[in-house]
Amino acid sequence: MWKIRLALAALAPLLLLMPREALACATCACGDPTLTSMGTEQPFAGRLRLATQVRAWSLASGQPRVDNLDLRELRMDLSVAYAPVPWLFLSVTAPLQARSVQDVSLAREGGWGLGDMEVGARFFLFRDREFSANHLVSVLVGSRLPTSVTQTARGLPLSLDAQLGTGSWDPFLGLSYTAYAGDWSFIASATGYLPTRGREDFRAGPSVLSTLAAQFQPSPTWALRLAVDGRVEGESNQAGVRDEVGSGAIAYVSPDVLFSPVTDVVVQLGVRVPVFNQLRGNVRPTPILQAALVHDL
Predict the structure, then answer these.
(1) For residue 105, what are the β-bridge partners?
(2) Residue 176 · residue 186 · CB < 8 Å
(3) What is the DSSP string of 73-115?
(4) 135-144 and 118-127 beta bridge pairing
(5) Is the pLDDT at 181 greater than 70, yes or no?
(6) Which controlled-vocabulary keywords does the entry list (predicted)?
(7) Domains of the chain, earliest start first
(8) Which pTM does this prediction carry?
């Protein structure tokens, strides 16, 4: 027995000198200490991110006591993103939703379950340097998928407003630019959606979503972010009948706080406050409350 122990003792220094796979946090791997939400991170080969985001929102449309409609939704997005190579991020998002609609007669309907999933691929076309880039330009392509099932009540389909998705293929194309300057970072992005026909021959209007954001991070563990989020949407169409309700333009001011309680974990808390509303149909949105958790594996 003592011979075995002596042999192991002699081998111990050699085992310590053997090369092993290096493990590093996401910040070390990309050279960027910026706390980022899902979809705004710097890429490196093998980066894997998991995220969940919860949003609570509501809106009213129509004339009070005439054709008013109140819609409320609680939504949780489960996302995974993976970079097989440094210039490509692949992502999948699955929304879990609970939605209710109440019309002017106080009749209420609602549903819950899986909404329309989204798949995307982000291609990084330009970076000023391979490690700890200061400037990034990327293109996003993908589509929403018709994964939501038709919600029913007593065997009959709910109204389109109460459904969790349109049940259509909605391709999208986006462009974004990100800059890093010390404690500050900036992002500008725009993404256009071109929906196809889905449930009940409904086709949502084409839309463009845009974001301008600035983030100040004085510490490795927390940051403040302020964004202006906008949406421009065209008229929808159902069975050849045009509907302008919800079309037009709207903009939100979105303050957020991000903090990292442990390495490779980012928590984001914020609110989106509507400050410009030119949506047709007397649409009156409330602020959107949101919270997110991102984990790099």
Answers:
(1) none
(2) no
(3) EEEEEEEEEEEEETTEEEEEEEEEEEEEEEETT--EEEEEEE-
(4) antiparallel
(5) yes
(6) Signal
(7) 2-296 (2.40.160.40)
(8) 0.86
